[in-house]
Amino acid sequence: MNDDAPTLDGLAEDLEDIKANINAFAAQLETTTKKVDAVAAVATGNGQGEGDAGKKGEDPKTPPFILLLTGDTYAAELSALAGWVTNLLVPTYLGEISSSATWCASWWDHPAAVARLHALWLAWQQLTDPETCGLTGPSVWHRDHLDPAVSHLRAPDGPFAACMTDPDRPQHAVLMVPLVAPLPARPTVAGAVPATA
Fold it and tell me: Residue by residue, what is the 3-state secondary structure of 44-79?
């Protein structure tokens, strides 16, 4: 009798090992497939909004541009944004107030600030959601969204330029909106030769 010949018990054990490896690979494939699908959905724009957008011929839901909302819809969205600004953004990320880093306690009176803060909040929601963001989502949010938005909002020529530069002296002023001339009846291109009849 050959001592190197496989035994029935040995073959059964090898078979169980192979089945366990196949099950592990199947689970890993399923996880990887879900991640790839999530990344593909975000890359194609179908990962925005809630629900089953993109299925059954529906248009994908996209986040609202807050300045286009009106009435109760605007008020509800602004209220949700205010909670995030008050409880997370300001205490965590907005440090000392100065002439080079302005702030306005009445930020909601500045439409440009509302639009930027809302966009920042929407990005934060997506890039901190473990279902869609992956491990680098928070880093991407800080680098691509938070830093540029806060730099613009707090810049000396940003929306808060006429507001608080010293926390001991609160100040709030909305900047004047530049004038825009009405479009002439027949706009012409500068330097263009008029057509002859």
Answer: CCCCCCCCCCCCCCCCCCCCCCHHHCCHHHHHHHHH
Q: Which two tokens stand for residue 90?
A: 């300001």
The answer to whether the pTM exceeds 0.70 is: no
Residue 81's contacts (CB-CB under 8 Å, 6 or more residues apart) are 66, 114, 117, 118, 121
36-45, 92-101, 136-145: least confident range: 36-45
Alpha-carbon distance of 175 to 18, in angstroms, equals 71
- Which pLDDT belongs to residue 111? 93
Per-residue model confidence (pLDDT) at position 52: 42
Q: Give me the helices (H) in 44-175, please.
A: 71-84, 90-93, 111-127, 137-140, 147-153
**Could you tell me the two tokens for 175?**
């900047």
Q: How far apart are the first and last CA of the chain?
A: 111
Residue 25 binned pLDDT confidence (cut-offs 50, 70, 90):
low
Cα distances (angstroms) measured from residue 85 to each of 19, 26, 90, 120, 167:
52, 43, 6, 10, 18
Residue keyed to tokens 């925005």: 48
